[in-house]
């Protein structure tokens, strides 16, 4: 088996709220290998956001080990974490988080501005390439307000891809979209995954989880279920089943 | 991460908020423009005083009787006012090596009459060198010479104002006779017109005659009101003042412990006296302008603070995709410096235009120095960094998780 991309052991995360200590994660183990498409599910308060923040190097665990692409994250400084986020992780958010009044291609270029020594022309080329991967090449110069929700999310996905990260982390990426558009976005994720990109996907919608290959269910800070999807949805097929829009 | 990328990001943010940025800049623009205009007015009035005083003869040294002035009041009694004698003039003329010309000066006032016309004026008794000391010229005719001095000749050179008042019909005054306090003088020359001096005195309302004539025939006095001299050059003026002081201390037998009964001053000292007043005014004006610049700076801080708050989510996103805290800090700092520097540039431009308008339409003397431009520009940059620092620091310390959730 390949070297895992994500390996966490006995991970805990506690928050102090006044006198009380909230234990959001209480000893979680999880391994994600290259090429996987994992959904992390759970109700609110289950600790899935905390887990995602730690996986995304936005937060650090209280105890336990987290290795991302062979690097132990525990003792890294804030700046080193920022660098890891920049080079190894692609984030996708529920509310897209695109910069307003900024063209799609400039939004996609953003992560490159913070690290690469590439020229402006190369940056542009890479951003255009990423937009092409998500099927947005014809709308490179549109600003977010000129794009539909699904299109905005595609731009956001392109932005997460532009630095060639080892894993994409999506936080309720279809939460703001209608069923058809959600499925279209899932189709894109499936395509990306088929091309070898590892994906971690947080959602609370069971039908969306069916598009992935493996589901991890969190409950009260512990993983209660970890199973491979047996009857996986194929987005193209599911889209055909949806009622035609007039 | 290279700095040009940060510049690009900051510039983009400014462009996205054009109106707000312009309004913020306005504070800086007005501040800088007023500093420049005020400095230009202050510097202009200082220079105009200097020019006017220098126009009386830049190298001129004046020797007056008495111990000098205290706040404009002579602190000497009647006798010490008569301490300057012709022998002092002779001593300076013989012994001083740092002066070019020297002339005794006596003066009186009275009514000058020619035919049916008369005019109240002052008459000055001087040596023929007096004109070159004052850097004056005769427009027509000649100046009297040493033989006129020796023979107490009743000849005179008159100023333009005298000519206009005594000969209003335009006849040539040369060779005509005028009477001053019933003593007749023959006019041998007319002085070039000089207009008013800084203090509003008409410099053309003057009659100049040999000092011997005035001393003996008009004033009947053996002392001098003053002695004027010109230094070899402006730079030598201070040394010449010291030299003359030493010569006179000797001729007056003054012990080093005693006060002098005379006072030697160069034009520079007079300039300094008057400049200090205008300098005080300049400081006041610039202080007021500086306050408006400060208020402009606080405006930047306010806007940057609001901007950081408003863009919390954006900051969170930037951090999530890999911006380090210091990049965020730099971004906002560059943004505020760009605003203040651009505002500063526009302010300099507006300041120059304002100054031009003031000098053209109000006719005030102005002078723009590169110092004032550089100063206000540096102040601007510092303002940008100083007032941008706190909001930028706040932005860079954001926690990306909280920032991303901010609505």
What's the short version?
The complex is a heterodimer of chains A (246) and B (407). Chain A has 246 residues and is an alpha/beta fold.
Q: So what's the CATH class of the domain at 34-48 and 85-241 in chain A?
A: Alpha Beta
Oligomer: heterodimer
Mean pLDDT of chain B: 86
Estimate what percentage of residues of chain B fall within beta strands. 15-25%
The helix count of chain A comes to 8
Number of domains of chain B: 2
Q: Care to count the β-strands of chain A? A: 10
Mean pLDDT of chain A: 91
- What is the molecular shape of chain A? globular
Report the count of strand segments of chain B: 12
Instruction: Please tell me what the overall shape of chain B is.
Output: elongated
Order of helices and strands of chain B: HHEEEHEEHEHEHEEEHEHEHHHHH
Assign a percent range to the helix content of chain B: 55-70%
Give the biggest sheet of chain A. 6 strands, mixed
- Strand order, largest beta sheet of chain B: 4-5-10-7-9-8
Q: Largest sheet of chain B, described in full?
A: 6 strands, mixed, barrel
CATH topology label of the domain at 34-48 and 85-241 in chain A: Rossmann fold
Q: Helix share of residues of chain A?
A: 25-40%
Give the C-alpha Rg of chain B: 33 Å
In N-to-C order, the SSE pattern of chain A is: EEEHEEHEHHHEHEHEEH
> Structural class, judged by helices and strands of chain A?
alpha/beta
Family (chain A): Belongs to the ABC transporter superfamily. Macrolide exporter (TC 3.A.1.122) family.
Protein name (chain A): Putative ABC transport system ATP-binding protein
Organism (chain A): Paenimyroides marinum
Keywords (chain A): ATP-binding, Nucleotide-binding, Transport
